[in-house]
Design brief:
UDP-N-acetylmuramoyl-L-alanine:D-glutamate ligase; globular; 1-PFruKinase; alpha/beta; kinase; lactose metabolism; 4-stranded mixed β-sheet; binds adenosine-5'-diphosphate; binds 1,6-di-O-phosphono-beta-D-fructofuranose; 14 strands; 304 residues
Length: 304
């Protein structure tokens, strides 16, 4: 079974505000609300691909209730731990440019963490775990590192997607997969990563420095770079105007896991992953399997 862990879920409130003006009364022309947070998005996209997963993490209040009931309506199983405060609301403004305001997490208690550790300690080497998203302020930035150490002791495959200090720490535990976007990679090495050449350079350093088998550097409209034992691949789709790129990175992660678990070739894995990310970027909300399959036919995959 694939388990996704979202320590900091959110209700995503995505609003279209043409010509958004700071300091004025603005009105939305269209809006969407859906359950969010990186692991939850991975579970939702896996479900669209026809793959089962179980969503874990912390939820609370009316927003937490909305997330649980929406996942249940979508037939996604979850075992969330209830916390005292309300799950955050993240606002995504799509106007002439895209802006995001991500809320703060409710407090997570020591008992809450113990419950999650108990859930993870019941997993076996047949399972895999996706650790994704930011770490709530009340938890140590080393939490993913500690979880990966525990999971690796049992030979459980760990997929990681986080940023900043939590990423830096978690890498020390040697996850099997990591997907920074090029900004996150730049922050990790305190360097500029804007071109594919720079991504190859720092992505290769990441593999060597932390011994991660599967490194994907996502480059938004430029697709993604996949660095693995067998070589280096770049996959991208022909340029098109994105409609809403919220969740595109998480969709890429879901597409990667879906194809990786089928033990497909590296070319097929990264092509499917990028097609999934881009299909979400070209949709108003999240991609469907049909949209992914359509984009797969247009994919350009190059070996370096
Ligand atoms: N403008 C775009 N055009 C086509 N695909 C996109 C676009 N933006 C994002 N994507 C797809 O989503 C993936 C992840 O996007 P990216 O912005 O790099 O990550 P994140 O959402 O994590 O910041 C890209 O590798 C690509 O497949
Ligand atoms: O935990 P963080 O880093 O605040 O990110 C959470 C936000 O990112 C998302 O998971 C989307 O991430 P991506 O656009 O990178 O795929 C939203 O659903 C959520 O609001």
């Amino acid at each position: 079974m694939i388990y996704t862990v979202t320590l900091n879920p959110a209700v995503d409130y995505v609003i279209e505000v043409p010509h958004f003006k700071e300091g004025s009364v603005n009105r939305t022309s269209r809006e969407w609300k859906y359950p969010g947070g990186k692991g939850i998005n991975v579970s939702r996209v896996l479900q669209r691909m026809g793959a089962e997963s179980r969503a874990l993490g912390f939820v609370g209040g009316f927003t937490g209730g909305y997330i649980e009931s929406t996942l249940s309506k979508e037939s996604i199983t979850s075992s969330f731990i209830q916390v005292e405060g309300d799950t955050r609301i993240n606002i995504k403004i799509s106007g002439d440019t895209e802006s995001e305001i991500n809320g703060a997490s409710p407090e997570i208690s020591a008992e809450n963490i113990k419950e999650l550790e108990d859930q993870l300690s019941g997993l076996t080497s047949e399972d895999s775990v996706v650790l994704a998203g930011s770490v709530p302020a009340s938890l140590p930035k080393t939490i993913y590192k500690e979880m990966i150490h525990l999971l690796k002791e049992k030979n459980i495959t760990c997929y990681l997607d986080t940023s900043g200090e939590a990423l830096k720490e978690a890498l020390k535990a040697g996850p099997d997969f990591v997907k920074p976007n090029h900004h996150e990679l730049a922050e990790l090495y305190n360097a500029e990563v804007e071109t594919m050449e720079q991504a190859v350079h720092y992505g290769s350093r990441l593999r060597e420095d932390f011994g991660v088998n599967h490194v994907v550097i996502s480059m938004a409209g430029e697709g993604a770079l996949y660095l693995h034992d067998g070589g280096q691949l770049i996959a991208k789709v022909p340029p098109r105007k994105p409609l809403n790129s919220v969740g595109a990175g998480d969709s890429l992660v879901a597409g990667f896991i879906y194809e990786h678990q089928k033990q497909s070739t590296p070319e097929d894995i990264i092509s499917f992953a990028v097609a999934t990310g881009s299909a979400t970027a070209f949709s108003e909300t999240f991609c469907t399997k049909e949209q992914v399959e359509e984009l797969l036919g247009q994919m350009e995959c190059t070996r370096l």
